[in-house]
């Protein structure tokens, strides 16, 4: 379901923001996946 998937993506982005630099390409991919 969409809301569960969105919640999972948001949690993943929060974790990525803690461990990756702000200009890391993986962050852009995660935002695009939302």
Brief sketch in words of this structure:
The chain is mostly helical and 34 residues long.
Summarize the amount of helix as a percent range: over 70%
Low-confidence runs: none
- Separation of termini? 13 Å
Task: Tell me which oligomeric state these chains represent.
Answer: single chain
Whole-number total of structural domains = 1
The helix-strand sequence is: HH
Radius of gyration: 10 Å
Tell me, briefly, the overall form: elongated
Biggest sheet details: none
Instruction: Report the structural category.
Output: mainly alpha
Overall number of strands? 0
Average pLDDT confidence is 93
Element layout with pairings:
Elements: H1 2-19, H2 25-33
Helix pairs in contact: 1-2
Give a written overview of the molecule.
This is Kinesin light chain. It comes from Adineta steineri. Helix content is 79%, strand content 0%. The chain has one domain (2-33). Helix 1 packs antiparallel against helix 2. It has 34 residues and is mostly helical.
Keywords:
34 residues, mainly alpha, 0% strand, 2 helices
